[in-house]
Amino acid sequence: MNDEQKWVVVFESGTDYESEIVRDRLDDAGIPAVIDTKRDHAFFLNVGSLSNVYVRVPVAYEVDARKLLSDPPISAADLEEAAMNADPKVDIDDDLSTDSEDVDRPKDEG
Question: Are 14 and 53 in contact (CB under 8 A)?
């Protein structure tokens, strides 16, 4: 097996949803990631080695994945500042309005 085929664990959790959030965060950053679990979801085991849920990435992405996961999350204040400084290119009111010619309306058959 060459290095391109090896996957390494970059995150471990006891819950599926935490692992899914981490996988999605990695995926959004362009880092391929998969969730690996031995958990039998029919029994919801929460103890022992069968309860662990792992997020794995290809070994070539390990350093980038660990750096991304070690970075602190964006604060609410930073998100608000980014939103306030955004330059929207679409006027929402224009998107919501429609011309009467563009809308097919049923005709009264009375």
Answer: yes
